[in-house]
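Researcher: I need the complex structure. Ligand is zinc ion. Inputs:
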Amino acid sequence: MRIKNLFIVPILLLALTGVVSCGSTKKSDDTQATEKKVVIKAPAFDADSAYTYVKAQTDFGPRVPNTQAHKDCGEYLAQQLAKFGAKVYNQYADLEAWDGTILKARNIIGAYNPDSKKRVMLCAHWDSRPYADYDADEKNHKKPIDGANDGASGVGVLLEIARQIQKEAPAVGIDIIFFDAEDYGTPAWHRGSYKAHDWCLGSQYWSRAPHVQGYYARYGILLDMVGGKGGTFYYEPYSYRTARK
Ligand SMILES: [Zn+2]
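Model: Output:
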């Protein structure tokens, strides 16, 4: 994912590691006396388990739309969500890429507590970029990337969350969405015209045609590139501008 992409929200890491701020601002003595300490129980997050799901994806090879590896990995992801007790929706769509290529895309959605009106959306993209257009070695610029970090890491984290949700379902409804065809944007080496809005094709499609009619979530958190060694996560500017709260 490049900065052009719609939104990357690293805040989730706080939730994943079970760090919950209870907002311990100064209160007057009166309120302190009646205030009860709220303990929020967060499930354990198994990093090794998440890593296993990242490796399972990269073992398929680059997950570039219209390839067998992509197809096989899509099956794997849908099966995993089903195995972890989610109601699975598959959104198949033919989406036009920057160069006119029609991408056989598949958004994969795992819903927990599907009847709840209180919903939270957690998402990542599962396709990987067909061009290593920023690789230090120019020879690689037209080759696909492995996408261990860019793509697989966010999905791996969400699969581990799905496994945890299955063990102890939260009261709210949760939708885990794996968007497809997100990272097929115009390569840096391309000169000339290209189709506009070329990034995030799967999520653009989903926003026009959500998997459930009239779908509404209180908020959404998207993870991408969360697996880098010593990763540092800043406020993501698009989210900061358009969804600050
Ligand atoms: Zn990405």
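Model: Summary of the prediction. Residues 1, 125, 150-151, 183, 224 surround zinc ion (CB under 6 Å).
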